[in-house]
Amino acid sequence: MASETAAGVETMTYREALRLAMREELERDPSVFLMGEEIGVFQGSYKVTAGLFDDFGPERVMETPISEEGFVGAAVGAAMSGMRPVAEIMTLNFILVAMDQVVNHAAKVRYMFGGQVGVPLVIRTPNGAGNQLTAQHSQSFEGWFANVPGLKVVAPATPADARGLLKAAIRDDDPVLVVENLQLYKAKGEVDTSVDGEVPIGLARVARAGTDLTLVAHSFAVTRCLHVAEQLQDEHGISAEVVDLRSLRPLDMETVAASVAKTNRALCVEEGWASYGVTAEVASRISTACFDDLDAPVGRVGMAEVPMPYAKSLEDAALPHEAKILSAALEVCGA
Amino acid sequence: MATTRRRTQSRSARRPDAVAAAHAPQRPLDLLAALRDMTLIRLFEQEAERQYKRARIGGYCHLAIGQEAATVGAVAALQPQDKLLTSYRSHGFALARGTSPQAVMAELFGREDGCAAGRGGSMHLLDPDRGYLGGWGIVAGQLPIATGVALAGVKRGEKMAVLCELGDGAVNMGAWHEALNLAAVWRLPVVFAVFNNGYGMGTTVDQASAEPEIHKRAAAFRMPGERVDGQDVEAVHAAADALLQRAREDRQPAVLEVMTYRLRGHSVADAGTAYRTKDEVEEWASKRDPLALATQKLLAAGVAEGELDAVAREAQEAVDAAVAFADASPQPSVDTLAEFVYGDPRTAEQFARMAPGAPAGEAQVIAQLQQAA
Ligand SMILES: Cc1ncc(C[n+]2csc(CCOP(=O)(O)OP(=O)(O)O)c2C)c(N)n1
């Protein structure tokens, strides 16, 4: 469990921080309720909602059948009618069967009906790869959703952001996809529980300051980039700044551009496929916004462009591991 | 309009009971052979469980220990030209259909000689030579595909049927409704075998389904729907055989609800105790174990105990050989990572060139391709 360090600051896991956000919002606002597969008696398939069913009961923590399209659609309807549903999709892979409700319906309602009604819906779901879960269970689709006007997409990389962004998402009047990451659930960090702690949607964060190169990432790729930044410093004397996007839509280009103006070099990293992906977008924007600042073409690293294989040897080769980020960083730096 | 009416009439004229009688099982089950398959599957899965705990097997590993009679009974009713599709709980299906334990274990180990070349793992076994068209990992995803496999069979004029296994949790997905409706309106020879093991992860059938007697839902598609004791391999075989025959002969799709139980958790990672009692599991293990039930029947029929011992011994030898084979098979080479993304191997080069950071030069590749062609 979470342990106290300083007054109000607790060290907790990413998973516990998400749980805390839901607990706090369930207590604060009676219109908030949770729904999802196995989030009750089973305690959540990744245990994010553990204990909430016992404390808030089946009306506030609703277990659903395996019916993603049905219950996400029901969440859209409930959200249009004054409730604030937080729907858990067991993993991002399974949202594809509910894609119609998310993209054709939730994202369009406010605009399509002339601004008369909104959809204050949160969908939270883990994504990512690295546990040999194979092609249908190892995907990172956040770029697909960030492509859709009408949706907001956030992807926290730390426990404090996990709590803060989820709270902001629940309070938001529009549909927000909160992309979690399987590799981060156990990650620990400090969370100031003495304050409300909401993290505004649409603000990036400088996770590490540096002067020679900007590494742009989100979610688990931030962790990888922080390690690479250490290596660049220790082994090559290169000072890398790491910008954690936190929100993919809206995207905070100001923080990214300010960093690149300082470092003159950028490498964009993501866990998903880079072609047409988040890094495609960010790299393109850097090329436009920072054209005069750049000393080298913007680099990109993503997952190998294959469906994820099962064999450990192949999975390792497909993931955007630190060694790959490091060599791409050195290339951008001409080192 | 006229066509529609005619079709409706002919379908409602096909009374399930009447037709079922006309298709009494023609191939009686060889119970000893069935026990052999069940034993192999049981020992194979127990070994997989051990190997998973030793981290020789990764990812998800969904065992079907306790469901062997359902698997073997249903698969034994397939003819060589029939096709099989399953969910992710699929080790037993591959083995029952005749895929070698070596190839299956090597797949679980993620090795080159696995039945999916180490790409698929536990959830995605495949053996097209034996008509096994895959274990699928998205709940209900395989249902429309099974319908399409049957459609192809019909278009090619083959007298075949498709057996599509799914869990009780899959019947609330949109894909269930769409696949069954298409199978019915196009009159496709698919038998949807719902393996009702009482739970979808931790959710009971009653919690998940407004009509928990799943076979009754077949009525919504004017298909026959039957329920059978899934711990009795002969009963499963007889029911599956009759329905598959009707599928082959009359293009009659059907739902077969096979009542069974998984003695383990949802996957090896789940203890399976948060949502059910130890007593419940113990009750099924001690009184309804399909291997024990088949053994009792064989003994009662006068089969010698020595013969049954040999069954267990041979199965254990096969499992040991499978582990040794899997162990010796190499990990797939990293050079083959991009193999199989597309059918034409030359495409890989095009995509390598397109990857972020790669040099441009598509024209060069295309010129090469044109030269080669
Ligand atoms: C569309 C989709 N949603 C959720 C999951 C996660 N999941 C995998 S298996 C499973 C339970 C399925 O239960 P059931 O169909 O009864 O089959 P059983 O596991 O009992 O064999 C769930 C929820 C998934 N794979 N696909």
From TrEMBL, chain A:
It is an enzyme of class 1 (oxidoreductase). Its cofactor is thiamine diphosphate. SUPFAM superfamilies: Thiamin diphosphate-binding fold (THDP-binding), TK C-terminal domain-like. Residues 12-187 form the Transketolase-like pyrimidine-binding domain. Keywords: Oxidoreductase, Thiamine pyrophosphate. InterPro entries: THDP-binding, Transketo_C/PFOR_II, Transketolase-like_Pyr-bd, Transketolase_C. It comes from the Bacteria. CDD domains: TPP_PYR_E1-PDHc-beta_like. Its EC number is 1.2.4.4. Pfam families: Transket_pyr, Transketolase_C. GO terms for molecular function: branched-chain 2-oxo acid dehydrogenase activity; magnesium ion binding. SMART domains: Transket_pyr. This is 2-oxoisovalerate dehydrogenase subunit beta. It comes from Capillimicrobium parvum. The lineage of its organism: Bacteria, Bacillati, Actinomycetota, Thermoleophilia, Solirubrobacterales.
From TrEMBL, chain B:
Residues 37-334 form the Dehydrogenase E1 component domain. It comes from the Bacteria. GO terms for biological process: pyruvate decarboxylation to acetyl-CoA. Its cofactor is thiamine diphosphate. GO terms for molecular function: magnesium ion binding; pyruvate dehydrogenase (acetyl-transferring) activity. Pfam families: E1_dh. Residues 1-21 are annotated as: Disordered. Transmembrane segments: none annotated. Its EC number is 1.1.1.-. This is Acetoin:2,6-dichlorophenolindophenol oxidoreductase subunit alpha. It comes from Capillimicrobium parvum. The lineage of its organism: Bacteria, Bacillati, Actinomycetota, Thermoleophilia, Solirubrobacterales.
